[in-house]
Design a protein that fits this description.
mainly alpha; 2 domains; 3 helices
């Protein structure tokens, strides 16, 4: 069939790929994109389940995207929780620690490393307010120990 011919029956061209599809189609069978069904005046409206409307029923690609977003949020949350649990141990440094100089240096270095991670999270659109507070605390404690023992 050439582009100038129209196929018999109730069909129309897909607005995305220009292939002939049925007028009632909600997804193009050629390109897989969502299309708005064309309803003719003589067609009877069909009863639809409200949960299956095109606006509410995600397509396969949208479901996959939604799953990735949820998993990403869970991963970021888990990383922040793990970070906060492990960092509390760092503050339990005795004031009389003979190795306070080395501890202070390592806290400052860890704060610098976490600063780089925070920049990566911010680059992905994540919120790092809680992480920034921890970084500032690590840096302050590290500098205090370094100044006191070095």
């Amino acid at each position: 069939m050439s582009d100038n011919e129209t196929p018999a029956g109730d069909t129309r061209k897909c607005p995305h790929c220009a292939e002939w599809i049925k007028s009632e189609a909600v997804v193009c069978r050629y390109c897989g994109r969502d299309v708005t069904p064309t309803v003719t005046a003589d067609a009877e409206p069909q009863a639809t389940d409200e949960s299956e409307t095109p606006e509410e029923a995600p397509t396969g690609k949208r479901k996959l995207w939604l799953i990735f977003v949820i998993l990403g949020a869970i991963a970021i949350l888990a990383a922040i929780i793990t970070f906060s649990l492990t960092q509390d141990e760092k503050y339990e440094i005795e004031e009389t620690d003979n190795n306070g100089c080395a501890t202070g240096k390592s806290l400052v270095l860890e704060a610098i490393e976490l600063e780089e991670r925070a920049k990566e999270i911010e680059g992905k659109g994540g919120n790092t307010d809680f992480l920034r507070e921890k970084i500032d605390g690590l840096r302050d404690e590290g500098e205090r120990l370094y100044d006191e023992y070095c």
